[in-house]
Specification:
Elements: E1 6-7, E2 33-38, E3 47-52, E4 58-64, E5 73-78, E6 81-82, E7 89-95, E8 100-107, E9 115-122, E10 129-134, E11 139-142, E12 145-146, E13 159-166, E14 172-184, H1 196-212, H2 216-232, H3 241-253, H4 258-275
Parallel strand pairs: 1-2
Antiparallel strand pairs: 2-5, 3-4, 4-14, 5-13, 6-13, 7-10, 7-14, 8-9, 8-13, 9-11, 11-12
Helix pairs in contact: 1-2, 1-4, 2-3, 2-4, 3-4
Length: about 280
């Protein structure tokens, strides 16, 4: 077992062809030196700590606070870079208690201060969440906002600074257990249907005019129906990042006013489209 070090820190697809599913690659988390980095770097007061349990899983606990314009906690792995050019995505296994958790990464040749490549995963309220995130789903961000820059996929020869980020505006205690991270080559069950792009684009082309004319309910209905049909027909894959994102959007939209619901559904559609 490699050394496991903690350093206190200030410091969401379509493939040309189906590849062998879940190629045997080892879990990398125990090889890495993990660091906490919270909103204290910007005056916030959130707290977090790390520990290893008996199963060699990384236990991340603390308290997320929105005070002093704070609102995020994160961990990342230092000083290790991987050549993952042979792979298509990252499999993550964790328990997250229903929190929205962002998986983070950096390219060694294009590191972004106060940011990096991020992909959101909705977690199960109980038990493990296991999801394969296509590298195409990672969005380059700084201070939480998308920015222009190179695609993560063109820099897979030097990928690292793997991590997790919580910034879901839900203050209070949290407990996350990171069990595994490993690169994978995805197979048929993790591949999105070829018609997903056109179905989403068509829904947006109908929904936008409805929204702009003031019929926000019709827009939300169009978006929701399209997402629901894609899920029911299996076109978003089985247990994929896209299917989890879609299900979370439907659940959230069902509890929101129709205008907010339309935006929630549209954001999920845009994230899926960006990964194609």
């Amino acid at each position: 077992m490699c050394s496991r070090i903690f350093l206190a820190g200030f410091v969401t697809w379509s493939l040309a062809q189906s590849l062998p599913a879940y190629a045997a690659v080892k879990n990398v988390i125990t090889e890495l030196s993990w660091v906490t980095q919270n909103d204290t770097v910007m005056g916030g007061v959130s707290r977090a700590q790390l520990a290893w349990n008996a199963a060699d899983e990384l236990v991340w606990t603390g308290n997320l606070s929105l005070e002093n314009n704070g609102g995020f906690v994160s961990i990342f792995a230092r000083d290790r870079w991987f050549d993952w050019t042979a792979y298509d995505g990252l499999e993550v296994v964790l328990t997250g208690g229903g929190r929205a958790i962002q998986v983070t990464a950096q390219r060694r040749d294009a590191r972004v201060r106060a940011g990096g490549y991020r992909a959101l995963i909705p977690t199960e309220s109980k038990g493990d969440t296991r999801v394969v995130i296509p590298f195409s789903a990672f969005v380059l961000k700084r201070f939480g906002r998308p920015i222009r820059g190179p695609d993560l996929r063109s820099g897979l020869g030097q990928i690292g600074r793997l991590g997790l980020l919580i910034a879901d505006k839900q203050p209070g205690p949290f407990r996350v257990i990171l069990k595994s991270m490993r690169p994978v080559r995805v197979g048929k069950s993790s591949t999105l249907g070829a018609e997903v792009r056109q179905r989403l684009v068509s829904a947006i082309e109908v929904g936008v005019p409805a929204f702009n004319s003031g019929d926000v309910s019709a827009c939300a209905t169009i978006y929701g129906r399209t997402i629901r049909e894609l899920l029911e027909q299996g076109l978003l894959g089985d247990g994929t990042w896209a299917s989890r994102l879609a299900k979370q959007a439907l659940d959230r939209a069902a509890k929101q006013p129709r205008r907010d619901a339309a935006w929630t559904l549209r954001r999920a559609m845009d994230q899926i489209l960006a990964s194609l």
